[in-house]
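Here is a complete protein record:
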Amino acid sequence: MSALLLVDGYNVIGAWQRLQRLRDRHGLEAARTELIELLSNYSAYQGYATNLVFDAQYRATPGQQEQVTEQLVVSYTDPEQTADTYIEMTCANHRDELRASRRRVIVATSDRAQQLTVIGFGAEWMSTHRLAQDVETSIQKVKQWQVEQRRKHQPKTLGSRLDDRIRRQLEHWRRQP
């Protein structure tokens, strides 16, 4: 069963301290960019098709979608549409698949009204706090996997484990008559 993760972008930026600080210091674009980076990695790790939705309230351009990675699409709503209505319409469009259990739709938001609405369509709800925890957990697991891969491929000889200075000193002693 494939899973679609719908994320209310500005809701997440407002809820995650890490993104709030970035927004306050470097602007909204920096926070959006960081969230996109985090979710592209998280989506790949989880295998989710993710749609990160931003309201048009901070943009004057018409709605558009940007395919960031195979798993992540960033959607900017039309100027008169909110991320909430976009997400609710997406859940409504998947209602039949949800009822037949052919697809999971997960909505990440802390907006209580939206939570109740999307659950009514049969989607799952994830708090922004839970999403932050899951993203951090996936980052740690990937780092741990990378360390394990390096260890696997590291030569297992004594010489490969010696410091360069010590290796030179031993070589010097070996060559002395």
Notes: The chain has one domain: 2-175. The first strand starts at residue 2 and ends at 8. The chain has a mean pLDDT of 87. DSSP finds nine helices and six strands in the chain.
